[in-house]
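Let us practice reading a record.
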Amino acid sequence: MIRTFTRFLTQDLRAGKGVWTDFTSRAESLKAQSPHQLAPTPPNKKVYHSPPLINETFQQAYELLQQESANIYKTAQSESDPAVKDKLLAMAEAKNPEVLYNMHRYPQSLDLSQPVYRNFARKQWEGHDLLVLMQRLEQLKVIPDTMPTLVPKVDVKIKFPHNTTSEFSGWITPGEILPAFAVSQPPVIQVQHFDHGDVHAVRKYTVLVVNPDEPDLTTNSFRTTLNYGVANIGLSLEDNTLDVGKYLAEQLSVFREYEPLVPEVNSGNYQRACLWLFAQKDNADISVDTNAFNSQNFDIRQFSESYGLEAVGAHVWRQVFDRSVNRVREQYGLPSGRVFHRVRKAHPL
C-alpha cells in the first residue's frame, strides 16, 4: 500500500483541477514534501504486481474526497468565528493524500500554522509525550509537592544548548538525571500550543523553576527554593521559544536570575528541578514585587494565586551531587556545599 501510495504521488495521478491542486489560496506546506522515488526491485526478489485498476481506483477516490473537501472549504469561507473556521479547514485537509504523506514521512517538520497539522501534532503529543510527562510528574511527586494538580494545555520542551555533546544538548526527557555542568546555563524553553484561532496571537506566560528538595536544618525537613523566575513572556504559534534572542529583543521581567541546582553530599537521593509554565490572566503584563516573597523559602501556590496565574504546562529534571557541582558553585559565587550524615537523626543537627 505504501508503494502504491508513493506511486500515486510520484506519477502525478492528480491530473485535473481541484481544491487540492490549487495553491493560490492554500499554503505550499500542504503539498507533498519530496515524494520518495520507488527503488527498483532487486533481481533476487519476486516482482510485486499491483492489483488491477488500482491507479484508476485511487484516481476516482481522490476526486470524490477532493469534492468533499471543496464543499467544506465553501462552508469555511462564510464562517466568522476563527476557532470554528480553523476546525473546518482542518477537516477539509484531513483526507488529502499529500497532507497524510507529510504527516507520516516528516512529522518533525510540519508547518503548525496549518490547522490540519496542528491537529495531528496534538494527537501525537496526547498519545505519548503528554503521558510520559504526567507519569513523571506524579511518580516523582512534583504533584502535589509543588502545585496541587495540572491539566496541561501546551507542550513544554526544554534543552540546554550550551552543551557541546549530543548527550546533553538535545531536548530533555521529563525526569532525566542531569549533571550540574549540563544545566549551568538557563534552558531554552519551547512552548507549543494547539488551540484553533489566530496563529499570530501573542500569549503572555510566566516561567518558574523551583527546587522542593533543599535541606532545612531548622525543621529537619526540606524547603522549596525559587531558582528561576521570568514573567511577561510573549509567545505565539510562530514565535514559541524562550531563548537568548527573546531576552535581547523584548523587555522580559526577570525577577529571579537563573541559579542551577547544586545538590550537597548525602542531601537526598536526588533534587527535582520543577519547571512550571503559567498563563497570565487576560494576557496582561504583571509586575512582580521581589520584596513580597522569599526565594529561599518559596511558596509557589501562594505566588500563583497572588498574580492570578494558571498552570498550563510543566517539566522536570533531576540532579544529584557530582564532581561538577563545586565548579558550578564557584561559577555562581555560592558557598561550599555541606556534607550531611547518611542517616537522618531524630533531631536537627
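A brief commentary: Residues 115-139 form the longest helix (25 residues).
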